[in-house]
Description:
Blueprint: H1 2-13, H2 15-20, H3 22-28, H4 30-40, E1 47-50, H5 57-66, E2 71-76, H6 79-91, E3 97-101, E4 114-120, H7 129-139, E5 140-151, H8 158-171, H9 189-198, E6 202-210, E7 213-215, H10 218-228, H11 230-237, H12 241-254, E8 259-260, E9 263-266, E10 269-276
Parallel strand pairs: 1-2, 1-4, 2-3, 4-5
Antiparallel strand pairs: 5-10, 6-10, 7-9, 8-9
Amino acid sequence: MELRTQLHGMWASVAPAWAEHADYADTRGAPVTAELLRRSAPRPGDRVLELACGAGGVGIAAAELVGPAGEVVLSDVAAEMTAIAAARAAALGLGNVRTQTLDLDELAQPDEAYDVVLCREGLMFALDPARALGEIRRVLRPGGRVALAVWGPRARNPWLSLVFDAASAQLGAPVPPPGVPGPFALDDPERLARLLADAGLAGVAVTEVPTPLRDPSFDAWWTRTSALAGPLARRLAALPDPARRQLRDRLVEAVGPYRTPAGLDFPGVTLVAAGQRRACGPA
């Protein structure tokens, strides 16, 4: 329970940064969002749940597909995040969107309540991903679809892995610490597919979506990455100035292979997993 409380507080603390960079996150995540929607196929009149919504970009995109006869619930473990998502939906005049504070590991929602469940880059932070997927299956209606995205293999996402490696070296301890879920906790596609299948979901498939990251300068990349990296942001902010400068120096050297005349150009890959609840059979 203590770890759960700490994680909730961690995401609440980075909500202001997610509000500031919401448009950037949606632009960068657009190919993943498109794949999530393609795989889950929200239809007019459907009821959709977005989990770990952050600033709500995926659910907001789904709201246009389900139309006024449908409904989208934007949910996150941090009420500070859902407040951001609600404000963005309201600014777009989306009357079919509402928000709720929900924990991935224990969804306080009725059985068979949704046609579609979506989650972009959230499941890897669940304390118990198997339990979370069981909850997702429970709240899906028979025939309902789920599509979720997690970061792919650590070695293929240097835009973030370099930060964690440098922070671990600077702090003299692994980041995130043992027992705390991190961004690469589900980066094995075979394990990810097995988790969905073991939860009772059918038609499971995992595909890769290229997600390169390009920034015009080191400072632009470092400012956003350090602000948005939930498991790390608070620890970085607490570093004394000399240690923060040392960490920055480490990273200036580490990003050397990714420098181009236009700035930084990192490769990246996201895993998109999808499945559905069987239309009939045992619950």
